[in-house]
Amino acid sequence: xxxxxxxxxxxxxxxxxxxxxxxxxxxFEKDEMPEAVLANGWTVADVIAHIVVWDQxxxxxxxxxxxxxxxxxxxPGYSWGDIDQLNEESxxxxxxxxxxxxxxxxxxxxxxxxxxLEQFDDEMLNAQYFPSENLPLWKFFAANTYDHYAEHxxxxxxxxEAHNR
Length: 165
Hints:
Helix content is 61%, strand content 0%. It is mainly alpha-helical. It has one domain: Four Helix Bundle (Hemerythrin (Met), subunit A) (Up-down Bundle), CATH 1.20.120.450. The longest helix has 23 residues.
């Protein structure tokens, strides 16, 4: 996407990315998701939980900043260089959650992302929002939505192809 985006462009990219990702997920039966182990060792359920965790992080960062606080990104006690460790700890913490709960959270989190996005205009989306980060706000929405879906799509698509699905 361009360096300057409109809210309409961002919404379209999020919707399109989610539609593509949901098409992959819809090729699974619910009970397969916790059992389908991808090349990276994660299950499809792990990926869904991971996406929800990052959606919740983004929502938390937005809420904290809106209340005048400076959230610690990516999470307290972690730097961006610790992402693999943070992701693994989050995966372990989410392991074993019922798939119906994960899917409900997955669907609810997108609605919350769009609700949060409503409060920002084009100018705000293209400005630095988090005091500790030198990036425009829209890049955080992208990283936690359509870019995030794309990041995990290849592993899921490879599993489906390997299983003739």
